[in-house]
Amino acid sequence: MPESHLSIVSKLNRLPKDKHDSAIGKSITHLTHKRSEQELWESFIKGDDSAFDLLYQISFRSLYNYGMKLCNQHDLVKDSIHDLFINLWKYRSKPSRIRAIKPYQYKALRNIILKAQAQNSPSVAVEAAYHFSFDTSVETKFILRETQDGQRDKLQNALNLLTQKQREVIFLKFFDQLSYEAVAHVLGISTKATYKLVARAIAFLREKMILITALFSLLG
């Protein structure tokens, strides 16, 4: 017998929803050495319900990180992740619709958050309801470890001059290291359009930046 919606919500309510929950950190540290998000999803759609709980825990941090860049509202992001996993449970019987779990999760979370923001501001279109931003002092630690703080500030200033979608595509492609195809899926545009969007953003940053070779080394 199919599990009821109430039962699914009850299952999710037993899982940690706060990014500071110590159990999440411990589980992620342990699980990332065992099974990837994609492997957990494939196990889940084959009938391993325990993989659902593990998928939630291993995915939470990256989803929360991405969601906070879309709206910077802690409760909304947490609730949106919760709703996302309710939908994952509902569609687990249709695996052909979800080939790669991470791009699907990002796109679904993006849609949930933008729709929620648009509902809060009915006069604002969905795509105009978000403000994508991220702090390079946090995000670039792994690629700008040797650069001076002033150089990081220049990068932040240049990123702030990009359009919302250009900032988002730079984050997804270079900081979150998604493929062009995955970025296209998240944003709901073609792969060709993604290449063009990235190229224009990079060209703009190159005009604004001097000696930011650490960032562009990711292109190689």
Task: Give a structural overview.
This protein is mainly alpha-helical and 220 residues long. It has twelve helices and no strands.
Order of helices and strands: HHHHHHHHHHHH
Low-confidence stretches: 1-6, 19-33, 141-146
Q: Which structural class should the secondary elements be placed in?
A: mainly alpha
Largest sheet: none
Tell me roughly what share of residues is in helical segments: 55-70%
Offer a concise description of the structure.
This protein is mostly helical.
Blueprint of the fold:
Elements: H1 5-13, H2 22-31, H3 37-45, H4 50-71, H5 74-90, H6 101-120, H7 136-139, H8 149-160, H9 164-175, H10 180-187, H11 191-208, H12 213-216
Helix pairs in contact: 1-5, 2-4, 3-4, 4-5, 4-6, 5-6, 6-10, 9-11, 10-11
Descriptive keywords:
66% helix; single chain; mainly alpha; disordered N terminus; globular; 220 residues
